[in-house]
Amino acid sequence: MKVIGVVGLPASGKGEFAKIAARRGIPIVIMGDVIRAAVKDAGMTQTDLNMGAMANKLRENYGMDAIADLCIPKIETFSSPLILVDGIRGDAEVKLFRKHFPGFILIAIDTSFATRLSRLAARGRSDDTTTELSLRTRDDRELSWGLGAALEQVDYRISNDGDLLKFTRQVNDLLQELESTS
Predict the structure, then answer these.
(1) What are the CB-based long-range contacts (under 8 Å, 24+) for 115-119?
(2) Between 14-23 and 164-180, two packed helices, what is the crossing angle to 10 degrees?
């Protein structure tokens, strides 16, 4: 089993990458689902503020790799040769995944601030930010979790400032390469 992780700033295209992988039959584990479940269990609504506060609380209580640690049992339920982890937010998570899954591959998605902001405005998820200030605040919060350090440890980079067709081609090409070596 080869585990690959996707890392990037909010609205960079991690979810779209996961959709493309899912269409190829690759199992997906979404790290944000751990946080969404914790927010729901706490009786809170899924807003950016609540999601960020819960992510901070989990990290404060259980360590900076807490969310990755909670995802490992889910990853291990799959017997597929390739499994995708969507939503890595820090270098401690990368370190844990590399320790637990030898050969772990990390893929960064690079997208400009302006493109990410316009995507958030169009996406309409309850935890999305829609102003420049709120996106900068969210970026700063996620960078405080070690996202910048995680972005420096990647094995592959994909630019996602173009159209969806170009991005889809790039993702499929990379996944085909990874599948052929798993």
Answers:
(1) 115/11, 115/160, 115/161, 116/9, 116/10, 116/11, 116/12, 117/11, 119/11
(2) 60
Where does the pLDDT of residue 127 fall: very low under 50, low under 70, confident under 90, or very high at 90 and above? low
Query: How far apart are alpha carbons 124 and 176 in whole angstroms?
Result: 31
Structure tokens at 79: 């017997």
Residue ranges and CATH numbers for the domains of the chain are: 2-176 (3.40.50.300)
User: Tokens in use for 76?
Assistant: 């291990």
Rounded distance, CA 47 to CA 126, Å? Answer: 6
- Helix axis angle for 132-144 and 48-62, nearest 10°, is 10
Please state, in angstroms and rounded to a whole number, the distance separating the CA atoms of residues 116 and 114: 5
Give, for 94, the enclosing helix (H) or strand (E).
Answer: helix 91-100
pTM (2 decimals)?
0.89
Q: pLDDT tens-digit profile of 17-37?
A: 999 999 999 999 999 999 999
Distances, alpha carbon 25 to alpha carbons 21, 77, 79, 123, 169, in Å: 7, 15, 12, 24, 16
Nearest CA to 35 out of 55, 9, 19, 12 is that of: 55
